[in-house]
Each structure stands twice: as C-alpha cells, then as structure tokens.
Amino acid sequence: MTIRKKNLTFARKIKLSLNIIYMNKDIVTEVIDSMGLGDFSQATIRDLQSLSKTLEEKTGEPVIHLEMGVPGLQPSEIALKAEQEALANGCATQYPPNGGIPRIKKAASEFVKAFIGVDIDPMCCIPTTGSMQGTFATFLAIKHAVGNTKDTVLLIQPGFPVQTTQCDVIGLKHVGLDIHGYRGKELITKLEDMLKGGNINSIVYSNPNNPSWVCFTEEELEGIGKLATKYDVIILEDLAYFAMDFRRDLSHPYQAPYQATVARYTDNYILWVSGSKAFSYAGQRIGVTCISNTLYNKVYAPLKENFGVGEFGNFFCNRLMYTLSSGTTHSVQHAMAALMEAACDGSYNFLDDVKEYGRRAKFMKDVLLANGFYLVYDNDMGAPLADGFYFTVQYPGMTDLELTRELMYYGIAVFPLDTMGSTQQGVRICTSFFSKEQEPLFKSRIEKFKQEH
User: Fold this and answer.
1) Does pLDDT of 38 surpass 90?
2) Whose C-alpha in 229, 237, 280, 356 is 20 to 30 A from the C-alpha of 74?
3) 422: exposed, middle or buried (C-beta count within 10 Å: 0-12, 13-18, 19+)?
C-alpha cells in the first residue's frame, strides 16, 4: 500500500471514529485487568503502548498515542545518502575506531562551536550507540574514576527514568531534586545544600527538560557551573532536544543566540548530543558524548591503578567503548557527520522540520486548557513555556494514575509523572506521534471527557 493510500485509510478511520468518542468501557477494563496493570502505579511506557495496541485490535478504534517519546518525522536525505555511500564504499567490512572516525569527531567539534559557542577538541567528541550508551558509559566512567569517595548521582527531575535504571544496573546510588519548587537562586541554594554532604559525584539534567519542557536560564547554568567547580562534581548535560526551545531562533551557525549550556561556566562537564530528536535519526542509534578538554585529560588515580589508563577520556574510549561495543556502527557515523557538516555550513536548517512538534503542542495545549486541564510545570521563571516535544498537564480532582487510566477509556494514551521523579500529580504529553488528521478526534474526545467529568 502506498503512503498516500495509507493516509487516506487513516483519515477515513478518524472520520468514522468521530461518532464513537470513547472506547467500549467493558473492553478497556477487561484488557487492563488481563494485563495486570491495576491502578497503573507499576505500568511502564511499554506497558501502556502494549495496552493501546491491544485496545485498537479489540475495538477497531484508533488510540491517540501521546505516551511514547519516539520521533515521528522523516529523517533528512542528507543522512540517508551519506550512510548509503559509506556502505557502498565498504565501511561495513571494517571495525570503527573506539573513539569514532575522524570525520564525525571533527564534525561534532565544529557543530558544538557553531551552535553552542564553546570549543571542544575533536579528540574529546566520541560517537556512541545513541546517547543512551553515552549516558551508560559516562556513569560507568565516573563510578570507576572517583572510587568510593563520591558514590551518588544527583538527578535534577523530573527526568528520563532510564537514567536512574542505568545507575541501578551499574551500582551507583542516586538522589533526585524536583525543580517544581526550585528555580533561580532557590535552585542553586538547594543544590549547594545537597552538595555539601560530599557524596555527590555528578549532576544530571536535560535542557529542554523531559518531560516538563522547562529550560534553565543562563543565570541558573552559571550557578550550577560554579558549584561544579567548587565541589568538584561533573555536570552531565543531556541535550537530547538540542536547540528545540522554539522561543528563540537557535538555528543559525556561529551566531547568537546559542543553545544554553553549563559549558560556559565550568570545565567539569560532559554534553550528550543525540541524533534521535533534532535530527530524526533515532532508529540508527547515534549520539556524541562531548567531554570538556580539561576533563578528558584529567588523570584519576583509581583508573590508572585498576585499568592502566589514568585519563578520563582515554578510559572512556579505550576501555569502556571497546568493551561495550567496539565502537559505534561505522556507517551511521558518516550519516551523523554529514548532518552536522551541513548544519554548520548553513545548507541544512535542522530545526525547520522539528518545529512541527511545537505546532502540535500548541494545538493540544489550547484544547486541553479550554476543557478544564491545567499545566503542571507551567512557566519558565515567569515566562510561558516553549511549545515542543513534551508538556505536562493535570485534571482537577484526579491523581496522575487515575487520569492516565481514565483517558484510556477515551482512546488517549499518556504517561504518569510518578515514574519520572516528579513530586507533582500530572501526566506527560508527547507530541511525536500526533498527526494533523487526529486533531478533530482529539478535540472531540477531550470535550467529551470534560462533559463527563
């Protein structure tokens, strides 16, 4: 079936579904019970995805998928062409270097300079199998570097729940700080109170934040950077949603405004730049871990004693990346490098396509707020939130678990904030799978929800 025919079929299903506002309640309850989901307190994103698909099969009605943070846009031909050419030229017959091929290391260094405005040597830019592998390798490196003197990771939350799982798998302790009540000077004061204990080895956050979409200000990042230097902790900045704060145009290379970063205020940092969201290349699993020049060359006695390699970056490349996967898939490094090269020379505006996420977010926010919902994380230091990949909402009188379950009866799948380190009640809305054809169906289902609640 062609893409056009698929779209027409989907559109017809949506049109028919406007007459059926919510799922058959008996079927929904039966499926939830059969899957053992109960009150949803133990449900994972994958559980909710599986539930949604089962309901679609049993009812014949489409579920509006807002639960999965998976990119929903087509990647650029630049990446596809570069990877195809690399394969045609025989790269599949060769192991890639542990620290990455020279092309992507140079491209990543230039990309950081062009869009973040900081200098990181190509040697210090290491491609990984998605930023997920980058975070896992980083946590491992920190654990071995600091020994038992600092055994705890501080996660600024809400955040990506897999990172806490990675810490658990590695055996790193972790604590969280929900930013809902801490912004500006209050955030810096609270962080310093937590750092004074001497057990924190690193601070992790995403910027823009998953799932709240708040963005740290330069003043906050400066404060975090100063604390990193003062207490000798490493700042781990997850840039999975690179430059997707659409309130400012961050798409022009080598000119302000730049992506906000802690890298301007400390040498104790690692940046994770992902190919998944901003470049819509999630399936090929590519990211780049960018270690500050100072940290890359810093010698840690436990690394030298236990592994014969004292430098942090050397250990990352030639011990961790070597043992984890012997480097990152050869062909995809060429794809990511080509995207970064084109972005730097101005021939490819990588933000043009992903602005669609912002349009979708605005539509859904308008519908939800007009029907009694409210934003949980509702402002950025007094400024309205950007419209982007995620946002968070709640409905009066419900817990986040109750709302997650109740919306499923109306064919809308969301994810509760409970599992993301939030102390607030609410659900995460992801815009990635929401299509323009679904807008009337979403509006009618939310209006019906309001009528019945």
Assistant:
1) no
2) 237
3) buried
Using CA atoms in the order 200, 206, 207, 212, what is the torsion angle rounded to 10 degrees? -110
How far apart, in Å, are the Cα atoms of 323 and each of 92, 94, 95, 167, 319?
Answer: 19, 17, 13, 18, 6
pLDDT over 90 (residue 189): yes
Helix (H, G, I), strand (E, B) or coil at 216: coil
User: Could you count the other beta carbons within 10 Å of the beta carbon of residue 89?
Assistant: 11
H/E stretch holding 429 reads: strand 427-430
The yes-or-no verdict on residue 7 having pLDDT over 50 is no
Query: What's the rounded Cα separation, in Å, for the pair 115 and 242?
Result: 9
Cβ(243)–Cβ(251) below 8 Å: yes
Beta-sheet strands, E only, within 310-378: 374-375
> Are 177 and 155 a contacting pair, CB within 8 Å?
yes
How far, CA to CA in Å, does 437 sit from each of 1, 7, 64, 65? 19, 9, 11, 13
Residue type, 322: Y
CB-based contact 137:320 (threshold 8 Å):
yes
Consecutive H or E run containing 80: helix 77-88
What is d(CA 356, CA 247) in angstroms, rounded to the nearest whole number? 14
